[in-house]
TrEMBL record:
Pfam annotation, one family: AA_permease_2
TM annotation in the entry: 12-34, 40-60, 90-111, 123-140, 152-173, 185-203, 224-248, 272-297, 318-336, 348-371, 378-401
Keywords, comma-separated and alphabetical: Cell membrane, Membrane, Transmembrane, Transmembrane helix
Keyword Metal-binding: no
Membrane topology category: Multi-pass membrane protein
InterPro entries found in the cross-reference section: AA/rel_permease1 (IPR002293), APC_superfamily (IPR050367)
Primary residence: membrane
Subcellular localization, as worded in the UniProt entry: Cell membrane
Name of the protein in question: Amino acid permease
Gene3D superfamilies: Amino acid/polyamine transporter I
Length: 424
């Protein structure tokens, strides 16, 4: 009997918002408010406000694309509709350089942060990372609805912890912490804006789940309005408080978020920061695994990737083969890092650069697709987002060679075997 190749429709905008927020709200929230303030001074708040505002054109454009074209391929499908099969195949290959490397790195960094703040031995770092990855894969294997409800519950805990931290620290804000406002000039503010951009990567992962929404057109538009509002508000509030109490540049508390929590919770602050890092990392891992597994499934269903990766569980209707493939990949990456001790901050630049290229391609595709249906508002939003992405590309430097190598590999494979695509 042939296995089903369709996914179950069970998601609403509530699930979608939780998954989108989780995919975007990564461990950067624990570190970057302090590091950008150290880099640019109090004017770093400008970088956070700018990116929070610019997140709306990007997320709303992706939401509109997903609502109009609900397909597990996400950006890959939008590129196919705009530029054809050859371009979409290369885009699918670009995706292979993101989550398979990026998510294990996120897990290791989060585990390292947790182990440091909780004073755990170093051998626990790969163990914590492996448990987080395995737990997320297991929840996704149980079904998308179970996975998304877990995301909602954990996000509620994270939101409460962050809000409590902000409220406890707020009384300690002093106006003199904002003077001088631009101590290092405006160039570091621009550089900080580039760093902050990486905190707003992840919206596209919900687009891959579009086939699983009960009402894609309505639910996805709500999702991509709620998610950037919540994320932007949390980021700006944390950055403001971090600057206002000067919770950066202090060596006695090396973990930036610990400095913020120590203001309100004293010696318990670092411990609380460790647990916060753990749950934030879990949420970030969870959202990205869900979206990427659907992209792999969709491209296997279309014949771009090996057909066995399109296998769907008969009852739960989730892409089990894609999840198993991710599990194998994660095991390999964790093993290599444990043996070699890779420079993770440098390595994370590789998938980040690919995401920037993918966003650029998605926004350019959106301009063409929306122009064909005379949606001027979305043409303008997509155009603005495309300009921002293109402007940020040069800052990636040598890492741009990575997406170029993925495109080259995809082109060679496409020349060897040209699949007959099924248009879903």
């Amino acid at each position: 009997m042939e296995h089903p190749r369709e996914l179950a429709r069970r998601l609403t905008w509530v699930h979608g918002s939780a998954l989108a927020i989780g995919a975007v709200l990564g461990s950067g929230i624990l570190v970057l408010p302090a590091t950008t303030a150290q880099q640019a001074g109090p004017a770093a708040i400008v970088a956070w406000i700018i990116m929070s505002v610019l997140a709306f054109p990007l997320s709303l454009t992706l939401g509109q694309l997903a609502a109009q074209h609900p397909h597990a391929g996400g950006i890959v499908e939008y590129v196919r509709l705009a530029w054809g099969n050859s371009a979409s195949r290369l885009t699918a290959w670009l995706f292979l350089g993101t989550i398979p490397i990026g998510v294990p790195i996120i897990a290791i960094l989060g585990a390292d942060y947790t182990a440091t703040t909780l004073a755990l031995p170093t051998w626990t770092i790969p163990l914590i990372a492996a448990l987080m990855l395995a737990g997320s894969l297991g929840l996704h294997a149980a079904g998308v609805e179970v996975a998304s409800w877990m995301q909602i519950a954990v996000l509620a805990i994270i939101g409460a912890l962050i809000v409590i931290a902000i409220l406890f620290a707020a009384p300690h804000i002093h106006p003199r912490a904002f003077h001088p406002f631009v101590p290092h000039g405006w160039l570091p503010v621009g550089q900080a804006t580039v760093s902050v951009f990486w905190c707003f990567v992840g919206w596209e992962m919900v687009g891959h789940l579009a086939e699983e929404f009960l009402n894609p057109r309505k639910d996805l538009q709500r999702t991509f309005l709620v998610a950037p509002s919540v994320v932007g508000l949390l980021y700006v509030a944390l950055a403001f408080v971090t600057i206002g109490i000067h919770a950066y540049g202090r060596t006695e508390l090396p973990i930036p978020f610990s400095q913020l929590l120590a203001t309100g919770f004293g010696q318990s602050g670092p411990v609380l920061a460790g647990w916060t890092a753990l749950v934030i990392t879990i949420v970030s891992i969870h959202g990205n695994i869900g979206g990427f597994s659907r992209m792999v499934f969709s491209q296997a269903r279309a014949g771009v990737f090996p057909r066995f990766l399109s296998h769907v569980h008969r009852i739960r209707r989730i892409p089990t083969a894609a999840l198993w493939a991710l599990a194998l990949d994660f095991a390999v990456v964790l093993t290599i890092d444990t043996m070699v001790h890779i420079n993770l901050p440098h390595l994370i630049l590789l998938p980040s650069t690919v995401f920037l290229v993918l966003y650029t391609v998605a926004m350019i595709s959106a301009v063409k697709l929306f122009a064909h249906v005379s949606k001027k508002k979305f043409v303008l939003m997509a155009g603005l987002a495309a300009i921002v992405c293109v402007a940020l590309l040069p800052f990636s430097g040598w890492a741009l060679l990575y997406p170029l190598s993925l495109i080259t590999a995809g082109w060679f494979v496409s020349v060897k075997r040209r699949p007959a695509r099924n248009v879903e």
